[in-house]
Amino acid sequence: MAFEPTVNLYVPICYVLVQDKSQDMYWRVLNELIILSSRKLVPGNVTYDIEVALINAALEQFPAPIS
């Protein structure tokens, strides 16, 4: 999600349909988002559900502290 100040809302930046919920799959999804953003995707916060594989992939892709 990204904050849109003109309407004072958080909006989704993408939806992804994946075949499985493995850490490798989440890692590849995050990697593609980083590449597609020309490496400008540097989130201040990452919000996710309680999915250990997603949490681990996010920690690898975005090594700065996340919540």
Provide a brief overview of the structure.
The protein is an alpha+beta fold and 67 residues long. It has one domain (16-67).
Give the count of structural domains.
1
- Note poorly predicted spans: none
Report the total helices: 2
Largest sheet: 2 strands, antiparallel
What global shape is seen?
A: globular
Instruction: Tell how many strands the DSSP assignment holds.
Output: 2
Class from secondary-structure proportions = alpha+beta
Fraction in beta strands: 5-15%
Distance between the termini: 14 Å
Global Rg: 12 Å
Spatial order of the strands forming the largest sheet: 1-2
Overall average residue pLDDT: 82
Helix content: 25-40%
Can you write the helix and strand succession as a string? EEHH
Could you describe the 3D structure shown?
The chain is α+β, with helices and mostly antiparallel strands and 67 residues long. The protein has one domain. The chain is 36% helix and 9% strand. The protein contains 2 helices and 2 strands, in the order E-E-H-H. It has helices spanning 23-36, 52-61, and strands spanning 2-4, 9-11. It has a two-stranded antiparallel ribbon with strand order 1-2. Helix 1 runs parallel beside helix 2 (52-61). The chain is globular and about 35 Å long. 6% of the residues are buried. It comes from Phytophthora nicotianae P1976. This is MULE transposase domain-containing protein.
